[in-house]
Each structure stands twice: as structure tokens, then as C-alpha cells.
Amino acid sequence: MSKAGIKKGPVRALGAMSGTSLDGVDAAVVVTDGVEILGFGESDYRPYTPEERAVLHRALGQWPNDPGVAPANRVVMAAHRELMGRFRDVEIAGFHGQTLAHDPRGRGTHQVGEGDTLAADLGLPVVWDFRTSDVELGGEGAPLVPFFHHACARWIGAGAPLVFLNMGGVGNLTWVDPRIARPEDEGAVLAFDTGPANAPINDLLLARRGLDYDEDGKLAMTGRVETGALELFLDDPYFSRIPPKSLDRNAFPEMMSLVGELGDADAAATLTGMAAAAVLRGMEHCPEAPDRLFVTGGGRKNPVLMEMLSVSLDCPVLPVEEAGLDGDMLEAQAFGYLAVRVARGLPTSCPSTTGVRMSVGGGQVSRP
Ligand SMILES: Nc1ncnc2c1ncn2[C@@H]1O[C@H](COP(=O)(O)OP(=O)(O)OP(=O)(O)O)[C@@H](O)[C@H]1O
Ligand SMILES: CC(=O)N[C@H]1[C@@H]2OC[C@@H](O2)[C@@H](O)[C@@H]1O[C@H](C)C(=O)O
């Protein structure tokens, strides 16, 4: 028995993720022993209502005890309780919560949501608060999905280095060498946040058109990238900083003023171009050219973004479905996988994924 009280060998683990796009909560089952992936189970999604989303938006940038946090906590807990309660025959759950603020070298990192309450509500051991111990040990506390990306590379039988690129609200990439068996071993993974991805596009569409996002890149498709604005954006020192490195959702507030004078279509095209160009700059940091780049997250459904990535990168750019994985659920699956690792005392991050001083298994375990 592990510290979470789960049996030896593979278990069905449920993971849940509420991402920086604030669109809703994903939950998915992965079958794992905490090392290898043995299979995937069912998955489900629970969108936030417009009112709930507004509560979360108001709480962005807030720290514990700030006034918007308690209402945000109620929204996050209710959505997770409802969604995760739909799953059966699960032995353990991983609960990421919702990031409200991220300042690893300053005030820390803040995910709202109470895993102990959720454990009692669901009657399951819940692993949560995944990022704090990494930050306490000098790490960025993000990204945390890279150890799961390494397991995915092995699950799909990859034989050469490849990249997983998540285009969520923020972009993050993991360069993986699947020939190295353990992710914490030297040279197995390199990971970092590439830059803003969908969050600024969503913010623009909301401000200018009252829409949640630029569906299928329809608006960007009719616009033109304003290269002056793009170059000013790329002057930010973040892009030349050696990884690991991570970002807050709203880390580039100047983006909106860079496109402020542009028409709606040009502004959308330029923000989409900025997301793609940030990835290109990120690829310069990879130790070796990858064989293929698999895109996960909502951005893979944006044909304008996918085309921009394809024309600028030297390797095939493919939606992760081409590898038989589910690009909407990868992060939720990751937190199920990481929960089992924490329960079994295995690390969840290492110096090359977050810059942490030594490999660490982050996360609190709450039993019902
Ligand atoms: N058909 C589509 N066309 C264009 N963009 C899309 C489409 N579908 C989803 N998106 C974008 O993807 C976003 C959702 O992506 P995803 O669910 O990966 O984000 P997240 O998990 O919240 O973010 P993060 O990974 O940063 O935590 C939407 O808010 C939207 O911007
Ligand atoms: C602090 C935080 O929540 N960061 C998120 C965010 O969204 C994408 C990117 O920025 C990544 O660093 C991370 O999420 C994923 C799940 C991760 O930790 O791997």
C-alpha cells in the first residue's frame, strides 16, 4: 500500500484540470502504475457558465485571502465535484485546481481549490497542490505535464526525440528523448513555457466581438500579421532566457497595446502570429532537432495557428491525435498520472523541467 492507500500495480486514476483559458474543467481516466501508461479510460468536460467564468476572471492575479478568491474557490469546487462525481471505479484522483496567480520567484504560485474537501466529497484519495514544493525547492512550479509527455512518447513507441507542444491559454513545450527510460535522468526531457498562446486571442475576441475565442481562426484568417508589432513583442528578454522558465497567464500585458491600433482581423492575426513566433523562438533552445512535433490543447484546432507553425518549423507539425492521443484530455490525464507518481513516492519534476534543485514529487495527499 502507498501513502494514499492505493494497491500495488496499475490503477485507474482520474485527473482533472482547469486551465488558463478558463473555459471549463477536463477530467479523464488513465491506467498507470505511475511509470508506464497502460491505457486510457473515459473522459468528460464541464464548461464554466459565463457567470462562473466572470468570477474566475475577476480573481486572476489574486493570492490567498484576497477578496475574489473565496468566490473563485466555490466555483472551482462545485464544477470539480459535479464533473469528477460522474466517474466510477477510480482508485485515486489528481486535482490541479485553477491557477489564479503564478510568480515563482516572488510570491509563489497559487492554485485555488481544496483537495482535502474534494477527497471527502468524492470518497477518494486526492492528490493536489502539485506545484508548491517544486517552487519551495527553487523550481518554476511549471510546467508539470512533461513527465507525462515522456510516458506518452514511450506509450506511442517513439524511437527518436520528439516535441509535445501544448497550445492552451499559455503555450508550453516538452522536448523528449524516449530512449532514456526515466524522465528525471539527464537528457530525457527539456520543458518550458513558450509564451502566450490562446489567452490573448480570447481576450481580444471578447473585448472586440463579445466572443469567447476565434473559432477555427476565422477572424485571423482574414487579417495580416503586423510585423512591427511582432518584432517588438519578440524583443522581450523572456524568449532568449535559457529554460526551464514559466509564465503567468497575463505575463505580457503589453501585447494588447501592441495590437490596440489595428483592426480586429489584423489584431487577431498578429496575436496568433505572436503565439507561433514564440514557439519558433522556443525551439532554438531544444538540444537536438525533433523528429516530429505533436500539438495538444485547443490551439491545434486553429488552422491559422497550425499553418503558421508548419511553415516556420523544420519538422512535421501534427495534431497529437496522429499519435493516437487525445489532445483535449492530455493535461487531465497528466494529473491522474502525476497523482499516482506522488502516491508512490516518485518525482514529478526535475531540474530540466522546472529548474528545481533536485527531482521532487510535489503534491499533498488527502484521504477521504
Ligand atoms: N476550433 C477552435 N478554433 C480556434 N481556437 C480554438 C478552437 N477550439 C479551442 N480553441 C482555443 O483553445 C482554447 C482552449 O484550449 P485548452 O483547453 O487547451 O486551454 P487550457 O487547458 O485552459 O489552457 P492551459 O493549457 O494554458 O492551462 C480556447 O479558449 C480557444 O482559444
Ligand atoms: C502555473 C500554471 O498553472 N501554469 C500552466 C499554464 O498553462 C500552460 C502552461 O502555463 C503550463 O506551465 C501550466 O500548465 C500545464 C498543465 C503544466 O503544468 O504542464
UniProtKB/TrEMBL annotation:
Q: Which UniProt keywords apply?
A: ATP-binding, Carbohydrate metabolism, Kinase, Nucleotide-binding, Transferase
GO BP annotations of the record are: 1,6-anhydro-N-acetyl-beta-muramic acid catabolic process; amino sugar metabolic process; peptidoglycan turnover
Keyword ATP-binding assigned to the entry: answer is yes
Q: In which pathway does it act?
A: Amino-sugar metabolism; 1,6-anhydro-N-acetylmuramate degradation; Cell wall biogenesis; peptidoglycan recycling
Report the sequence similarity comment from the record: Belongs to the anhydro-N-acetylmuramic acid kinase family.
Listed InterPro entries:
Anhydro_N_Ac-Mur_kinase, ATPase_NBD
What is the native source organism of this protein? Pseudooceanicola batsensis (strain ATCC BAA-863 / DSM 15984 / KCTC 12145 / HTCC2597) (Oceanicola batsensis)
Protein's UniProt name: Anhydro-N-acetylmuramic acid kinase
Q: Name one Pfam family in it.
A: AnmK
Q: Where does ATP bind?
A: G19, T20, S21, L22, D23, G24, V25, D26
